[in-house]
Prior knowledge:
- The structure is a single chain.
- The protein contains eleven helices and eleven strands.
- By secondary structure, it is α/β, with parallel strands linked by helices.
- The model is unreliable at 1-33 (pLDDT under 50).
- Helix content is 36%, strand content 20%.
- Helix 1 (53-69) packs across helix 9 (270-283) and helix 6 crosses helix 11.
- It has helices at 53-69, 84-91, 110-113, 120-123, 148-157, 172-184, 196-205, 215-223, 270-283, 287-295, 305-325; strands spanning 12-16, 42-46, 73-77, 99-104, 124-139, 163-166, 189-192, 210-214, 228-232, 257-265, 299-300.
- The strands form two sheets. Strands 1, 2, 3, 4, 5, 8, 9, 10 and 11 form a nine-stranded mixed sheet that branches.
- Strand 6, helix 6 (172-184) and strand 7 form a beta-alpha-beta unit.
Amino acid sequence: MKPTSLPSTRRRTVVAGAIALAVGGLPLAASAQSGPYPNKTIQVVVPFPAGGIVDNVTRKLGTELSASLGQTLVVENKAGAGGSIGAAQVARSKADGYTLLTAFDTHAVNPLLYKLSFDSDKDLKPIALIATSPLVLVVHPSVPAKSLRELVDLAKAKPDTLHYASTGAGSSNHLTTELFKATSGASFNHVPYKGGAPAITDVLGGQVQVMFVSVTSVLAHIRAGKMRALAVTTRERIPALPDVPPVSDTYPGFEATSWVGLLAPAGVPADVVSKLNGGVNAALKSPEFQKFLEEQSLRPAGGTPEQFTAFMKAETQKWGAVIKRQNIQVE
Length: 331
């Protein structure tokens, strides 16, 4: 995730060819179109660079949706401002279901940190929550702490001597660390980076010692002994790191996840919303897509648009409280 502004990039990729299969089996209303939806190529805007978690999930999901909807899906990467530049493009698009947005967890907090050119609640319609992902707390091997409690004790004994990396102000690893600081009373200095790769590189090199980060990004480093995993942010252990306890074992109630979801411009016809939501939920039952998510340490979500809306509102409230309490600002 990159909350700081980045040069906008465009990359169009056809993720799959059209396959003439339809979801459900009952024709849907034309909804001001020349035929049942969809009858032409669908564009999905990914508001982050190619190759990241949101991009990878979108392309894999696109393959599934292309087959079920019977139309080609094209991915356009438009990065910048923590995903808000791409989101603004979709918010201004025609509400016909042919321009969609794959959002990341920053989508729920961007209105609290940025002056946006659109209203997230009024201008975009949630379609479905696709997947969630835990973070893992890692430290450089030079840090003597072998457990979460030992890390907190070390941070309290030597205030402001430990530094933590994030992918920028407002990113999930930044907010998660600030929540952890507020919960535990530990003291760490924030070192923001413009992306996950340079942040992870400096943790590996010991320039910074602590980071909450996606499991997939660092699993190989943990297994190679180049990082030490102390805790995961879900309330239960995860298959990829079965010996690593949840933060909540030490601090009950602590939980933080990243997520990926599909949205459309507000005003999209109800039949189109229903068809897209059904397509996502059907994809999440696909063994191939489930295997892909498992390999990425992602958990399939799904559900109704209303459930996704409620989920995002809860995320905004939760992290809004952290932003206010920790006085987090984007420069």
